[in-house]
Design goal:
The complex is a heterodimer of chains A (277) and B (162). With 277 residues, chain A is of the alpha+beta class. Chain A has a domain of 157 residues: Rod shape-determining protein MreC, domain 1 (Thrombin, subunit H). Helices cover 33% and strands 27% of the residues of chain A. In chain A, a hairpin with a 4-residue loop joins strand 3 and strand 4. Chain A is rod-shaped and about 125 Å long. Chain B has 162 residues and is mostly helical. Chain B has one domain: Arp2/3 complex 21 kDa subunit ARPC3 (Orthogonal Bundle), CATH 1.10.1760.20. Helices cover 77% and strands 2% of the residues of chain B. Chain B has seven helices and two strands, in the order H-H-H-H-E-H-H-H-E. The longest helix of chain B has 27 residues. The chains are: A alpha+beta (277), B mainly alpha (162).
């Protein structure tokens, strides 16, 4: 009753408010071309008034949305990383295809699954073994050149002795002058071309490749560039070679399988002693 | 001012507004006779009845208008309320007070119309007000004063000429 009495006392105000509200509603609902602009303009003060209240509800929803977006970001980052890896791998494989000019060999791709735990040694474990035709002594290459030779071959994995191992040696040749020698590890990241008579023509910048004289590792596989030539020794030259392959970055390698063995499945594991080269 | 008289006056003003008034002014400036009737009604009947009268009259005007439906209802309701609240009197208003009351009512209506037009079109409110609405309000106010000094209409409208 009090409410009705109050409304009756202020009926002129009530009538005004009702009339104005209805008028605004009619304007907003009208199909007039200006109605859209009118609606936006009229609703702006209400939006400002409602903003503090909306902030709380929006903050809660934003919290959840933020968590979802973070999870999505992590997922996308991982996906992006995979794509990037695939891109780089693709580039490397393309370069290798350019290198593939040996019809007498098949290239068996293999990935590094383990590295030598002993600091004094330098070797890798690949995810392919005798089951895929790999045998001891076979050359292992990258797109840049010779990486090493197969040292041991199990049914599903093999150990590769890298060219940077102190036990590694391979017959090699200076490409420009056909001078033969033996490439060994020279300490650090360098290699040495040894057994080269002092009077032969070797210069810094000469390209060194495998000679193929060992009968297992084919000739012509790039090894590195002559970095320096020391002629102080009376019998042999001391030739330092900068290898092409970056041995600390090896990820996927290719084992050169002789055509006759390609696809063959060697029975059992083979442990055939030291690599030949 | 009786309700019946107000309705007749309003309908007559509406008829004139849509027929003769367009020829009595320019494209931009023209008097608003229904609004003048509303102001007279508000001073005689008070805010409450003026709001109701203004709302219904405004809706009728909106039906005939090409503007947003409800715009005239809004302006008429507001103008009727303010004029009735400030200048309602059971006795006839002195001429000076009538002049002031009608000026306030018409100016308020001009301002409200300008703001609503601005809301709808985002046109500058100052330009609309100064170039169109205030001159039109002044035109209407002059007609209101002529009506007020007329003995018959002044007496009917409650305007005291002393």
């Amino acid at each position: 009753m009090k409410m009705l009495a109050y409304l009756d006392r202020h009926r002129d105000w009530v009538a005004l408010v009702v009339a104005l509200v209805v008028s605004v509603a009619l304007m907003s609902a009208s199909g007039h071309p200006n109605a859209d602009t009118f609606r936006r303009t009229v609703s702006r003060p209400f939006e400002l008034f409602a903003a503090p209240f909306n902030f709380v509800t929006r903050a809660v929803s934003l919290w959840d949305e933020n968590a979802d977006l973070r999870a999505k970001l992590v997922e996308l980052s991982a996906e992006r990383s995979q794509w990037r890896d695939a891109l780089l791998e693709n580039a490397r494989l393309r370069r290798l295809l350019g290198f593939r000019d040996r019809p007498e060999f098949d290239y068996l791709a293999a990935e590094v699954i383990a590295r030598e735990p002993t600091p004094a040694l330098s070797s890798l474990v690949l995810d392919k073994g005798s089951g895929q035709g790999i045998d001891v002594g076979q050359a292992v290459v990258t797109a840049d050149g010779l990486a090493g030779v197969v040292h041991r071959a199990g049914p599903a994995s093999c150990t590769v002795l890298l060219a940077t191992d102190r036990n590694f040696a391979v017959s090699a040749r200076v490409e420009r002058t056909r001078v033969d020698g033996i490439v060994r590890w020279a300490g650090g990241g360098k290699m040495a071309l040894t057994e080269v008579p002092r009077n032969l023509d070797v210069k810094p910048g000469d390209r060194v490749v495998t000679s193929g004289l060992g009968g297992v590792i084919p000739g012509g596989i790039p090894i590195g560039l002559v970095e320096s030539v020391n002629r102080e020794d009376q019998l042999f030259l001391e030739v330092i070679v900068e290898p092409f392959v970056q041995y600390h970055k090896l990820e996927e390698l290719f084992v050169l399988l002789p055509r006759a063995r390609a696809g063959d499945s060697a029975a059992g594991s083979s442990e055939r002693g030291e690599p030949r080269g | 001012m009786k309700i019946r008289t107000a309705l007749i006056a309003f309908l007559a003003s509406l008829l004139l507004q849509v027929s003769l008034v367009p020829f009595a002014g320019s494209e931009m400036i023209r008097p608003n006779l229904p609004l003048l009737v509303l102001v007279v009604f508000a001073t005689r009947r008070g805010a409450f009845q003026a709001v109701l009268f203004g709302f219904v009259a405004g809706l009728l005007l909106d039906v005939l208008s090409s503007g947003m439906f409800g715009m005239s209802a809004f302006v008429f309701s507001l103008t009727g309320f303010v004029t009735g609240k400030l200048f309602h009197s059971d006795l006839p208003l002195p001429l000076g007070l009538w002049a002031f009351a009608s000026a306030i009512g018409l100016l308020l209506a001009a301002l409200a119309w300008s703001v609503l037009i601005t809301f709808g079109t985002l046109a500058p409110v100052g330009g609309t007000l100064s170039a169109q609405m205030i001159p039109s309000a002044a035109y209407t106010w002059v007609l209101g004063m002529l009506w007020a000094i007329s003995p018959w209409y002044g007496r009917r409208a409650g305007v005291r000429l002393d």
